[in-house]
Structure formats: structure tokens, C-alpha cells
From TrEMBL:
Signal sequence bounds: none
Keyword Glycoprotein: yes
Annotated organism of origin: Cherax quadricarinatus (Australian red claw crayfish)
A Pfam family: wnt
Protein's UniProt name: Protein Wnt
GO cellular component: extracellular space
InterPro entries the record matches: Wnt, Wnt_C, Wnt_CS
Similarity comment: family membership: Belongs to the Wnt family.
Compartments reported by the entry: Secreted, Extracellular space, Extracellular matrix
Principal subcellular localization: secreted
Alphabetical UniProt keywords: Developmental protein, Disulfide bond, Extracellular matrix, Glycoprotein, Lipoprotein, Secreted, Wnt signaling pathway
Function field: Ligand for members of the frizzled family of seven transmembrane receptors.
One MF annotation (Gene Ontology) recorded for this entry: cytokine activity
Length: 189
């Protein structure tokens, strides 16, 4: 079902054999299949016993999808190890650099390097990460170490005014006080 649904837009187009458009079409179809295989690979079989006092006289089993995060982590690992390919004159994808292995149906492939999102790039609409607010204590995507792309960050103390000590009055309004606090603000260099 998913193959017919996800791949339909790619399969309904006929591009010139060996063209870049056909290359993108084949890349998308390959990666769609790799995504389906990742979902299948992470699918689990769950079983439940039925019977008097846990006798398990009848077992019901079913397949269950893994949590979305688990599938996403697997695909992220595959993205990090994706193989660069090119389209040949016969209209087939082939490995761009001969020293690399031919990708399996579970591997992801790409035709072009991704743009550097650390730097401003008007062509792809990326503002870069310079002057972006980052979280000094985070090791995740919002952390200064990752978000600032190794350029470091500036820190400053900022006074923030915010609503606080809010109370609901019958009927029907909320009254708040204004609190002032000083916070550390970190921005990418």
C-alpha cells in the first residue's frame, strides 16, 4: 500500500534516460524503498495470553510499528552514511566514487552534497546560524556546540520583563504582575 501511495508521483513521470531529472526520480524511489525497509526492520511482534488465571490457553500475536523516534534514529544513521551516486547513460544509478560499495536496498543515496546550513545561502533560503540564540547547557540541536558550527558563541546578560504571579478573577479576567529578571543570552558568532 505505501509503495503505491508514496511512489506514485515519481512513477507517473517519464524523464529522458540518463537525465538529472531521471536521476532524482531513481534516487527518490530508492530512498523511499529504504525507508519502507527501515520501518519493516523495526516492526515488532507482540503477543498476549488469554485464559483462565493466566493459563495462556490462547495466544494472540500482532505486528506493531516501532516508536517513530526509533525509526527516525535508524534513518538518521543511514543518512549520515549515505552513498553518493550518479546517473549513467543507460538510466541507472551507479556509485560516483568506485572505492565505495554499491548501496543495498536498505542504504540511502544522494546525487549532490547538502548545502552548508552553517553559512548564509540565499539560493536555498538558509540564513545560516550566525547570531542565532543557542542553549549553552544543551548537547542537542539547540546547543551552542552544534548550532554554532564550531565558531563559538557570545554571552551577555539581558534583562527580561515577563508576566508573573497571575491570578484569575471571577468573572472573567486574569491579572498579572510584571517581573524583571536577568538571564544569560548566548548567540552564535
Amino acid at each position: 500500500f505505501t509503495q503505491g501511495f508514496v511512489d506514485v508521483r515519481e512513477r507517473e513521470r517519464n524523464y529522458k534516460r540518463g537525465s538529472m531529472k531521471q536521476g532524482r526520480q531513481l534516487m527518490n524511489l530508492h530512498n523511499n524503498e529504504a525507508g519502507r525497509r527501515a520501518v519493516i526492520r523495526k516492526t515488532r511482534v507482540n503477543c498476549k495470553c488469554h485464559g483462565v488465571s493466566g493459563s495462556c490457553s490462547l495466544i494472540t500475536c500482532w505486528q506493531q510499528l516501532a516508536p517513530f523516534r526509533e525509526i527516525g534514529d535508524l534513518l538518521k544513521d543511514k543518512y549520515d552514511g549515505a552513498t553518493e551516486v550518479k546517473i549513467n547513460r543507460r538510466g541507472k544509478l551507479q556509485v560516483k566514487h568506485a572505492q565505495f560499495n554499491v548501496p543495498t536496498g536498505e542504504d540511502l543515496v544522494y546525487l549532490h552534497e547538502s548545502p552548508d546550513y552553517c553559512k548564509r545561502n540565499n539560493t536555498v533560503g538558509s540564513l545560516g546560524t550566525q547570531e542565532r540564540i543557542c542553549n549553552k547547557s544543551s548537547e542537542g540541536m539547540d546547543g551552542c556546540g552544534l548550532l554554532c558550527c564550531g565558531r563559538g558563541y557570545n554571552s551577555q546578560k539581558v534583562t527580561v520583563r515577563e508576566r508573573c504571579h497571575c491570578k484569575f478573577h471571577w468573572c472573567c479576567f486574569v491579572e498579572c504582575k510584571t517581573c524583571v529578571r536577568v538571564v544569560d543570552l548566548h548567540t552564535c558568532k
